[in-house]
């Protein structure tokens, strides 16, 4: 395995391909050993051979892509954990994909617990700031399609009462304004969500607080908004994964 990895690394370093003899020298292997491993790696799809030169194959590229995605996800998770600790709030990252709300990552802790998902987040987008923020970034037709599939329902006494009231509210939300929700999804909790639009995909970063700390909500949201730009490229790539 170790010798095969050395060969793969040698091929990866040669963008325009290399012959077996060159790769054997690069990897520090005897030529017969290199030939045997190269044939195996070609057979397994990790390398491909063209006109006597070896290149990375689809299997190796998939591994590379998977590793890069994992690294990006790790970077997002680390940033969210940093914001959680610095701001003293749980942080949520969600996107709207294939007609559904998808929470990609949550950074919380025993001292800053996330909101308990007592009603399915995908079906209750009208009630929480994450959903309202994502829906606010959609066109009218897409919003109505979502509400046809996930109609408004009262979760607390503060939840918006019907589709039309929600649509009017969404129309009033400014393009880059934090979307604020107070006890509409869960009693005792307030939430703010910041829009992140990448291409045609709607995304959001959100925070929540106990309702007795509601005065902290907007200052924390604005503080988070100033930090997002540092990670926007990574978040954009994560949205596309």
TrEMBL record:
User: What SUPFAM superfamilies would the database entry show?
Assistant: GAF domain-like (SSF55781), Winged helix' DNA-binding domain (SSF46785)
| Any single biological process term in GO | glycerol metabolic process
Q: GO molecular function terms here?
A: DNA binding; DNA-binding transcription factor activity
Give UniProt keywords alphabetically: Activator, DNA-binding, Glycerol metabolism, Transcription, Transcription regulation
Specify the IclR-ED domain's residue ranges: 59-241
Identify the InterPro entries for this entry.
GAF-like_dom_sf, HTH_MetabolicPath_Reg, Tscrpt_reg_IclR_C, Tscrpt_reg_IclR_N, WH-like_DNA-bd_sf, WH_DNA-bd_sf
Instruction: Please report the stretch or stretches of sequence annotated as the HTH iclR-type domain.
Output: 1-58
Task performed by this protein = May be an activator protein for the gylABX operon.
Question: What is the name of this protein?
Answer: Glycerol operon regulatory protein
């Amino acid at each position: 395995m170790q010798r095969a990895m050395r060969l793969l690394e040698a091929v990866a370093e040669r963008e325009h391909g290399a012959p077996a003899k060159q790769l054997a020298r690069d990897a520090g292997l005897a030529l017969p050993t290199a030939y045997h491993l190269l044939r195996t790696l070609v057979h397994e799809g990790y390398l491909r051979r063209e006109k006597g030169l070896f290149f990375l194959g689809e299997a190796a590229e998939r591994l590379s892509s998977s590793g890069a995605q994992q690294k990006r996800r790790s970077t997002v998770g680390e940033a969210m954990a940093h914001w959680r600790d610095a701001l003293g709030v749980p942080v949520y990252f969600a996107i709207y994909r294939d007609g559904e709300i998808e929470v990609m990552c949550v950074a919380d802790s025993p001292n800053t617990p996330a909101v308990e998902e007592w009603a399915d987040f995908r079906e209750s987008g009208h009630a929480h700031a994450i959903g309202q923020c994502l829906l606010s970034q959609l066109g009218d037709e897409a919003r109505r399609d979502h509400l046809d599939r996930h109609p408004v329902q009262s979760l607390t006494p503060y939840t918006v009462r019907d589709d039309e009231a929600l649509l009017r509210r969404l129309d009033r939300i400014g393009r880059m304004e934090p979307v604020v929700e107070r006890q509409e999804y869960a009693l005792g909790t307030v939430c703010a969500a910041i829009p992140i639009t990448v291409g045609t995909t709607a995304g959001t970063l959100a925070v929540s607080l106990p309702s007795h700390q509601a005065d902290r909500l907007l200052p924390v949201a604005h503080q988070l908004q100033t930090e997002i730009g540092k990670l926007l490229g990574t978040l954009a790539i994560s949205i596309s994964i």
